[in-house]
Amino acid sequence: MKKLMIINGPNLNLLGKREPNIYGSLTFTEFFEEIKEKYSSIQMDYYQSNIEGEIINKLHAVGFSYDGVILNAGAYTHTSIGIGDAIKGIETPVVEVHISNTFGREEFRHQSYISPNAKGVILGFGLQSYELAIQSFL
Q1: Would you say residue 104 has pLDDT above 90?
Q2: Where does the pLDDT of residue 103 fall: very low under 50, low under 70, confident under 90, or very high at 90 and above?
Q3: Active site residue 110
Q4: Active-site option among 66, 76, 98, 130
Q5: CB 93 within 8 Å of CB 65
Q6: 23 tagged catalytic
Q7: Could you tell me which of 30, 33, 44, 6 has the C-alpha nearest to residue 122?
Q8: Any idea which residues are catalytic in this one (predicted)?
Q9: Would you state the pLDDT for residue 76?
Q10: What whole-number distance in Å separates Cα of residue 37 and Cα of residue 34?
């Protein structure tokens, strides 16, 4: 059985409440339950933190034992050399995802410290971005 870890960064705990015109009205917990049921042949785990170091620690913890990581580092995508280095240091492939099209937003969101070390990048498809990332590991 494949093991996938979904890691969400800062403010993604507010999905369903935060800017529903950009992020939708579904909470991530509701969405996660849906995809776990849909992809029941995969062991999927979920972790969310607003703290950069905790995200790095989680990458280190799963980065040698999971088949894949789906990472939405939120705003840390554009600021965290540490998260980018953590991805470079682990063996597990990481797919970077974003709910919104970051290139259609503020210019500072066009830079990613995750992308150079990621297996791939999926953005702009709403929560379906996560499903596309799951499918990339199948």
Answers
A1: no
A2: low
A3: no
A4: 98
A5: no
A6: yes
A7: 6
A8: 23, 98
A9: 95
A10: 5
Say how far apart CA 123 and CA 129 lie, in whole Å. 6
- Residue 69 forms beta bridges with which residues? 5, 94
Find the farthest-apart pair of alpha carbons in the chain and give their distance in angstroms, rounded.
40
The domain defined by 3-136 folds into Rossmann fold (3.40.50)
| Annotated binding-site residue numbers for substrate | 72, 78, 85, 99-100, 109
- Interhelix angle 128-136/28-38, nearest 10 degrees: 40
Annotated binding site: 72, 78, 85, 99-100, 109
- Tell me the C-alpha distance between 75 and 54, whole Å: 15
User: Does 15 or 137 have the greater pLDDT score?
Assistant: 137
What mean pLDDT value characterizes the chain? Answer: 93
Asked if residue 92 has pLDDT above 80, the reply is: yes
**CA 8, CA 1: separation in Å to the nearest integer?**
23
Both structure tokens of 75: 């705003």
Q: What is the mean pLDDT of residues 110-138?
A: 94
Cα 108 from Cα 2, distance rounded (Å): 35
Catalytic residue among 23, 47, 66, 76: 23
